């Protein structure tokens, strides 16, 4: 069994997925989900079902839920059913999946509840030898009690033990360090998987291959050729009744300090010695160490207001959400400019933009190149851009100038386009959680956040967050469904980004 574990822990994800014999192995993986809130029914159970359905888990896998609520497996099945995407042909397979599910109710701070959980685990077929994966889908307030009781009562003595920790990983540098210190007192770094689902996105993972698998990008991926890098996360909806949670954290903690900063690292890092987890994460940490804390002068904060001419929710502003505290100054939009002070990037602005209630749903990385020197076309040339669209409609495209077709001899903007739905018509892209949970099974931590990486990320943003919490600056209003405050565009322009407004990317699969 140990040999089988070792063999799968060193497989690449593609080899793992393509393995034809995996479903027939008797390697036992025991999944324990400490259930909390919507995440379990909307993401975790659907993900485990898809992996089980597709034969990517050993047939002898068991799933054990644990929480304070008095639930049954039927309750879990009913609540998660709308998110499972089950076809009529899969009904029997779904029944097999839930037949391997069980549920134990207990108190998070009660050691005897976890002893009862461990007794249940041991009673399952192969339970004493099983590997154990603990998925903590919990509010951070109960992490200490739960992890302590897992360590004392529920660890496997014969298989491996791994713990998935969901964000937020603290509230600032101090709280994050306290959580990391607590976790490291119970588990080794190799056992801890801090999950940021953005690292499981297809195009985020593709950044490494684009950069380090293509000679054409290497010589131009630096301050000599790039004017700026823009990382964007936009949502077309507001808080929609979740304002209480959001108001505690805000858009910077919710998106910028984790998702966007992770993408920045992948864009800016040097080539790692290999694709091993530590080699990749070592380079990401080096990037973060070169970034000074964000200055409030390089930040624009916004809060959406209702659009009187909008429809439905668009008429409502952030403060109209009954779950938002009255008079809240929490930002729902932020643009921040960071600089990586090293030889490759010195002077190149990294513009991070994220917000709610904007004009579209989009996440992308945009590298804007410098102007062509010695322009002979009478200022008709626009800047080249390389765009990696993370969502929706995954794509990589390069904006470039080309001769306008026909009798004209003038340049116009066009693109070299790799749109996944056109190029890979029959390929199903797995959900980010599917990739990441598979990585945990394989023992690969490449796409998970290491403790020193987390520390540096909080170091960059904590002074800004403390300033905002203390001074409570009033965010700039912007209309629901707009691009955000115009001051954010002015900031980007001031640091070097040029928006011409003359080009619109057309998704070719819609043509």
From TrEMBL:
One Pfam entry name: G6PD_N
Compartment(s) of residence: Cytoplasm, Cytosol
SUPFAM superfamilies: Glyceraldehyde-3-phosphate dehydrogenase-like, C-terminal domain, NAD(P)-binding Rossmann-fold domains
Record-linked InterPro entries: G6P_DH, G6P_DH_AS, G6P_DH_C, G6P_DH_NAD-bd, NAD(P)-bd_dom_sf
GO-annotated cellular components: cytosol
Keyword set includes Membrane: no
Keywords on record: Carbohydrate metabolism, Cytoplasm, Glucose metabolism, NADP, Oxidoreductase
Domain Glucose-6-phosphate dehydrogenase C-terminal: 208-499
Reported function: Catalyzes the rate-limiting step of the oxidative pentose-phosphate pathway, which represents a route for the dissimilation of carbohydrates besides glycolysis.
UniProt cross-references to NCBIfam families, sorted A to Z: zwf
Name of the protein in question: Glucose-6-phosphate 1-dehydrogenase
Organism: Sander lucioperca
Organism taxonomic ancestry: Eukaryota, Metazoa, Chordata, Craniata, Vertebrata
Gene it is expressed from: g6pd
């Amino acid at each position: 069994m140990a040999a089988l574990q070792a063999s799968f822990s060193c497989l690449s994800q593609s080899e793992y997925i393509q393995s034809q014999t995996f479903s027939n192995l008797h390697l036992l993986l025991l999944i324990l989900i400490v259930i909390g809130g919507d995440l379990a029914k909307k993401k975790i159970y659907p993900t485990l079902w898809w992996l089980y359905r597709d034969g990517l888990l050993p047939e002898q896998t068991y799933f054990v839920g644990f929480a304070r609520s008095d639930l049954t497996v039927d309750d879990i099945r009913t609540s998660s059913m709308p998110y499972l995407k089950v076809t009529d042909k899969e009904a029997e397979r779904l029944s097999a999946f839930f037949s391997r599910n069980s549920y134990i109710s207990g108190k998070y701070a009660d050691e005897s509840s976890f002893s009862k959980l461990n007794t249940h685990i041991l009673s399952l077929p192969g339970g004493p030898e099983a590997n154990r994966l603990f998925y903590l889908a919990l509010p951070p307030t109960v992490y200490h009690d739960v992890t302590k009781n897992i360590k004392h009562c529920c660890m496997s003595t014969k298989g491996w033990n791994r713990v998935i920790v969901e964000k937020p990983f603290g509230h600032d540098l101090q709280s994050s360090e306290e959580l990391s210190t607590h976790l490291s007192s119970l588990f080794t770094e190799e056992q801890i998987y801090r999950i940021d689902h953005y690292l499981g996105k297809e195009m985020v993972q593709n950044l490494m291959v684009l950069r380090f698998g293509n000679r054409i990008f290497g010589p131009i991926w630096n301050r000599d050729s790039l004017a700026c890098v823009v990382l964007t996360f936009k949502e077309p909806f507001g808080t929609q009744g979740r304002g209480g949670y959001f108001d505690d954290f805000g858009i910077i903690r919710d998106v910028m300090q984790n998702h966007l900063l992770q993408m920045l690292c992948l864009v800016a890092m040097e080539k790692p010695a290999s694709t091993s987890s530590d080699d990749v994460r070592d380079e990401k940490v080096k990037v973060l160490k070169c970034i000074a804390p964000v200055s409030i002068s390089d930040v624009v904060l916004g809060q959406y207001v209702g659009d009187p001419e909008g429809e439905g929710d668009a008429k409502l502003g952030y403060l109209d959400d009954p779950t938002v505290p009255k008079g809240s100054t929490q930002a729902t939009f932020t643009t921040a400019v960071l600089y990586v002070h090293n030889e490759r990037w010195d002077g190149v602005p990294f513009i991070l933009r994220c917000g709610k209630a904007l004009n579209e749903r989009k996440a992308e990385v945009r590298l804007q190149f410098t102007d062509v020197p010695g322009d002979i076309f009478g200022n008709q040339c626009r800047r080249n851009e390389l765009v990696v669209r993370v969502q929706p409609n995954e794509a990589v495209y390069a904006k470039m100038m080309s001769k306008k077709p026909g009798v004209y001899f003038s340049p116009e903007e066009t693109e070299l386009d790799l749109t996944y739905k056109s190029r890979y018509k029959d390929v199903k892209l797995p959900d980010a959680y599917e990739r990441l949970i598979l990585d945990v099974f394989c023992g690969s931590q490449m796409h998970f956040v290491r403790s020193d990486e987390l520390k540096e990320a909080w170091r960059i943003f904590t002074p800004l967050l403390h300033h905002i919490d203390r001074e409570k600056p009033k965010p700039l209003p912007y209309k629901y469904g707009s691009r955000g405050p115009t001051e954010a565009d002015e900031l980007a322009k001031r640091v070097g980004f040029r928006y011409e407004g003359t080009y619109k990317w057309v998704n070719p699969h819609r043509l």
